[in-house]
Amino acid sequence: MVDKEQGLRKIDELKEQYSKTKYNKATNKYLGMLRAKIAGIKREIESQGRKAGTGYAVRKSGNATVALVGFPNAGKSSLLHVLTGVESRVADYAFTTLDVIPGMLEYSGAKIQILDLPGLIQGAHVGKGGSMKIISVIRVADLVLFVIDINNYQQLYQLMEELEMLNIRLNQKRPNMRLEKGLAGGLNIEGNGHRIPDKDVVQSILNEFKIFNGEVIFYADTNDQQLLDYVADNCVYIRGAVALNKIDTVDKRKMESVKKEIETRTGMRVTPISAKMAGNIEDLKGTVFAGLELIRIYLKPRDGEPDFDKPLVLNKGATVVDVVRKINTKLVKNIKYALISGPSSKFSNQRVGREHKVLDKDVVTVVFDM
Ligand SMILES: Nc1nc2c(ncn2[C@@H]2O[C@H](COP(=O)(O)OP(=O)(O)OP(=O)(O)O)[C@@H](O)[C@H]2O)c(=O)[nH]1
Ligand SMILES: [Mg+2]
Question: At CA 159, angle to CA 21 and CA 127, rounded to 5?
């Protein structure tokens, strides 16, 4: 058992060794081992920290939850106000907001919960500025919306690094692989033709987690960080987007160049806004809605008209079963088939089975076996 201070010091040491080591074929295994060691210590510290049971009590509500994440004074509370009408104290100094303030944005038939959070600072992963509570809220969000003051836009990269160290993976797919632990016979690694780390590295990472026997099967390209994440099983996978704020304080050229730089470097969608002047907020709502990957389904009674005012809102990838579950879980076992008109059907009123995937704006009639 490591104590927290000691563990963090050890991590810093290992990180230093890591950054000093040039990457090449010969050092590859060593680097993989360092990463595995760091992950092992982090996991131990975290498992101790969790016992404390801290965290804000926020109840998730609506169809999806968005966390506003930014440095102090970036404009998060101002943005909550223009998005949802909720008054969260706004002031021209850091740490105005000290609690989680929820608001609700209704957009395109979906109810989107927006959480205004206290500012996050560098060093969050070691618990600076009461950040652990903030992190616990971010981890349950469906979308992280970075609120960035364009005059200090480099802060975005620091925030991303913090979240990375806190095991929050943005816009990344969950590793697609499987691990069957065994009792003897060593490790059998099945790459299936995908790009995976060297066998040596796979081995040393697993050994670091005390796994010496078994089978590892990869179903997609996987790098050593993803393998670590999979074995440690401590990451959350959340979508991310950027609201580039305070664009009323710079000229258009500056705005365009910063937007481009961030998009190129992070791959995230960037929407320039002015929270104070309510500039470009409709555009941002669209970005948030798209980022959440929600779909709207219009239910139609067998002999009636679809209800276009009140869509059912579901996550992308939902099936007929998910539609029914949303209406009444008890009915799921009675689904006979569904009739669909819209983007997921080949023709109108196509008859489909319960596992059929619905798409945004489908009109759906479910027929039950009673
Ligand atoms: N010029 C300009 N000022 C803004 C904009 N958005 C926010 N501000 C100002 O920036 C300051 C901080 O705004 P807040 O909304 O309180 O920022 P915050 O991110 O909630 O700050 P903390 O709660 O301290 O983390 C206030 O003086 C706002 O009026 C904007 O788009 N343009
Ligand atoms: Mg605030």
Answer: 90
Cα atoms in the Cβ-side hemisphere of radius 13 Å centred on 328: 7
Domain check: are 139 and 78 in the same one? yes
CA of 72 to the centre of ligand 1 (A): 8
Q: How many domains does the chain have?
A: 3
- Domain around 143: 64-167+236-292
| Residue 59 belongs to a domain | no
Nearest Cα to Cα of residue 39 among 176, 211, 212, 228: 228
Same domain, 305 and 336: yes
Q: Are residues 150 and 70 in the same domain?
A: yes
Statement: residue 319 has pLDDT above 50? yes
Residues 210 and 336 in one domain: no
Q: Which helix (H) or strand (E) holds 206?
A: helix 199-208
Distance 60 CA to ligand 2 centre (A): 20
CA–CA dist 368, 370 (Å, integer): 6
In angstroms, how far is the first alpha carbon of the chain from the final one? 58
> Are 108 and 180 in the same domain?
no
Q: Please state the pTM of the whole predicted model.
A: 0.85
Q: What is the pLDDT of residues 42-55, one digit of tens each?
A: 777 776 655 444 45
Atom of ligand 1 nearest to the CA of 93: 24
